[in-house]
């Protein structure tokens, strides 16, 4: 993958640039792929079910509403995603099991961490447009992520 700075230099405003300052938690520091989305709040049932499907090189973008009150993903779910062929996960929310995440072959970006588990009520939706950091993430768009940030193609 080309660095995001080079991609932006080549394509400019044809790419959306996410202003949210995520932390990187996974073993992969650079990743890219077609976007699949989940919107959920402190409940990770839909997120886990999605990562349990074949990823086929996709990136899961999760809008957790920016909540840091409970982790939406930990090492077990990240390992599930990696073993199913997902390239990465971007979470507008929290993760847990930070040391273990750093060893899993998956790109993981999130706002922060919290050891508290999320609820398991199954409240959430997938394959809908989600927006944060000045970017609208539309299922099927392409996402590029590295140490400089996140770029997304426009719908």
Helix content: 10-25%
Multimerization status: single chain
Highest CATH level, the class? Alpha Beta
CATH superfamily: Ribonuclease E inhibitor RraA/RraA-like
Helix run count: 4
CATH topology: Glucose Oxidase, domain 1
Mean pLDDT: 97
* CATH architecture title: 3-Layer(bba) Sandwich
How many structural domains can be distinguished in the coordinates? 1
* Dominant shape: globular
Described by strand count, sense and barrel closure, the largest sheet is:
10 strands, mixed
Poorly predicted sequence stretches spanning 5 or more consecutive residues = none
- Our estimate of the beta-strand percent is 35-45%
Number of separate strands: 12
Structural class: alpha/beta
Specify Rg, calculated over alpha carbons: 14 Å
Whole-Å distance between the termini?
A: 21 Å
Give an overview in words.
- By secondary structure, this protein is an alpha/beta fold.
- The chain has a single domain (4-153), classed as Glucose Oxidase, domain 1, CATH 3.50.30.40.
- Helix content is 18%, strand content 35%.
- It is built from 4 helices and 12 strands; from the N terminus they run αβββαββαβαββββββ.
- It has helices at 4-11, 45-51, 75-83, 98-101; strands at 15-17, 23-24, 31-39, 59-63, 71-73, 88-95, 107-113, 125-126, 130-132, 135-137, 142-146, 149-153.
- Strands 1, 2, 3, 4, 5, 6, 7, 8, 11 and 12 form a 10-stranded mixed sheet that branches. Strands 9-10 form a two-stranded antiparallel ribbon.
- The longest helix has 9 residues, at 75-83.
- It is globular and about 40 Å long.
- This is 4-hydroxy-4-methyl-2-oxoglutarate aldolase.
- Substrate binds at residues 74-77, 96.
- One of its GO terms (biological process) is regulation of RNA metabolic process.
């Amino acid at each position: 993958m080309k660095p995001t700075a080079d991609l932006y230099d080549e394509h400019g405003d044809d790419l959306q640039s996410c202003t949210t300052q995520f932390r990187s938690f996974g073993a992969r520091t650079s990743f890219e792929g077609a976007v699949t989305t989940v919107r959920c709040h402190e409940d990770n049932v839909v997120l886990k079910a999605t990562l349990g499907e074949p990823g086929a090189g996709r990136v899961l973008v999760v809008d957790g509403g920016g909540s840091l009150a409970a982790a939406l993903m930990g090492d077990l779910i990240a390992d599930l995603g990696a073993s199913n062929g997902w390239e990465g996960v971007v979470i507008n929310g929290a993760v847990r099991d930070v040391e273990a995440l750093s060893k899993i072959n998956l790109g993981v970006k999130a706002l922060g961490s919290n050891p508290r588990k999320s609820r398991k009520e199954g409240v959430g939706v997938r394959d809908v447009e989600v927006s944060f950091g000045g970017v609208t993430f539309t299922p099927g768009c392409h996402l590029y992520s590295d140490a400089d940030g996140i770029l997304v193609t426009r719908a």
